[in-house]
């Protein structure tokens, strides 16, 4: 890990939505505070938790994070949007309350975004391995990720996303499942998506576990199909593609349901959200 530097380049706003995250929120926030390139602000949005999340954040991080307490639970999309409304950075970096970042993540993001100022949305893979002391490679290749590859599957996890801070880039607040895919489709249709094939986010809970962010598999598929339907508002030419996309989504649900494998974390090297490099 590099020594902390003065924030004289890209200004990052970090947004952490949390719901009943008393057991994990400290790890998430600490991974941001440990960044060798510090963000200009950390915004924690509590989505009406009923555990001790509020007390933990207020007691441990008073003056270090902006804490927003929501009274009514509206889901992670609305929580992230709330944080984005008050954010002041050039770019927004999302982190879920049960994930953590490599200490040099924002340092690397700053270097890449300064070298490619036209980037609107950027992402990287995640891993279940311990990455906190892992040295990053000296030579890093930035890839374009084509929009069409987002249609059959979503390689992008929200905790791995950095997006330009503009009012037009917001989550659909009524979506509680696959809202990350929806945002990437909406943004990626008009703007290029870039990525590096280096995991900078460590996850600690399976996306399909009970209580996990994607615990209800059928609701995930319904959210996916809704994201596809919303594409028609962007271009009517997507309309003929909907039957194929719906069948693909239903097919994935059937295959995963029939497999009935034990709930585990995604594969360490090629998890379903890790994506593939594209030149």
Tell me the radius of gyration. Answer: 18 Å
Number of domains: 2
Assign a percent range to the helix content: 25-40%
Total number of beta strands: 11
CATH topology annotation of the largest domain: Spore Coat Polysaccharide Biosynthesis Protein SpsA, Chain A
- Going by CATH, what is the homologous superfamily of the largest domain? Spore Coat Polysaccharide Biosynthesis Protein SpsA, Chain A
| CATH architecture label of the largest domain | Alpha-Beta Complex
Could you describe the largest sheet, including whether it forms a barrel?
8 strands, mixed
Task: Give a verbal description of the structure.
This protein has helices at 25-33, 53-61, 76-86, 105-115, 179-188, 217-231, 242-259, and strands spanning 12-18, 41-46, 66-69, 91-94, 99-101, 121-123, 126-127, 143-145, 161-164, 193-195, 201-203. It has two domains: 12-203, Spore Coat Polysaccharide Biosynthesis Protein SpsA, Chain A (Alpha-Beta Complex), CATH 3.90.550.10; 217-259, no CATH class. The chain is globular. The strands form two sheets. Strands 3-2-1-4-9-6-10-8 form an eight-stranded mixed sheet, sandwiched between helices. The longest helix is centred in the last third of the chain and has 18 residues, at 242-259. Helices cover 30% and strands 15% of the residues. The protein is built from seven helices and eleven strands. It is an alpha/beta fold and 279 residues long.
């Amino acid at each position: 890990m590099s020594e902390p530097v003065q924030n004289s380049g890209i200004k990052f706003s970090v947004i952490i939505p949390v719901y009943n995250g008393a057991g994990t929120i400290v790890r998430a926030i600490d991974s941001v505070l440990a960044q060798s390139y510090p963000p200009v602000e950390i915004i924690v949005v509590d989505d009406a938790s009923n555990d001790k999340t509020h007390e933990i954040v207020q007691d441990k991080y008073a003056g270090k994070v902006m804490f927003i307490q929501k009274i009514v639970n509206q889901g992670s999309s609305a929580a992230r949007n709330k944080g984005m409304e008050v954010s002041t950075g050039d770019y927004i970096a999302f982190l879920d309350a049960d994930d953590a970042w490599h200490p040099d993540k924002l340092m690397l993001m700053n270097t890449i975004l300064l070298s490619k100022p036209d980037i609107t949305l950027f992402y990287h893979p995640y891993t279940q391995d311990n990455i906190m002391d892992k040295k990053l490679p000296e030579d890093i290749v930035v890839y374009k990720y084509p929009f069409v590859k987002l249609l059959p599957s979503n390689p992008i996890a929200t905790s791995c996303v950095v997006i330009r801070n503009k009012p037009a880039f917001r989550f659909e607040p009524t979506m509680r499942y696959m809202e990350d895919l929806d945002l990437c489709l909406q943004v990626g249709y008009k703007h290029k998506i870039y990525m590096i094939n280096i995991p900078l986010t460590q996850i600690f809970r399976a996306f399909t576990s009970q209580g996990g962010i994607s615990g209800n598999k059928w609701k995930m598929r319904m959210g996916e199909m809704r994201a596809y339907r919303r594409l028609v508002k962007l271009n009517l030419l997507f309309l003929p593609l909907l039957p194929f996309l719906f069948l693909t989504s239903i097919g994935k649900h059937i295959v995963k349901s029939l497999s009935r494998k034990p709930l585990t974390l995604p594969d360490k090297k090629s998890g379903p959200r890790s994506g593939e490099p594209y030149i």
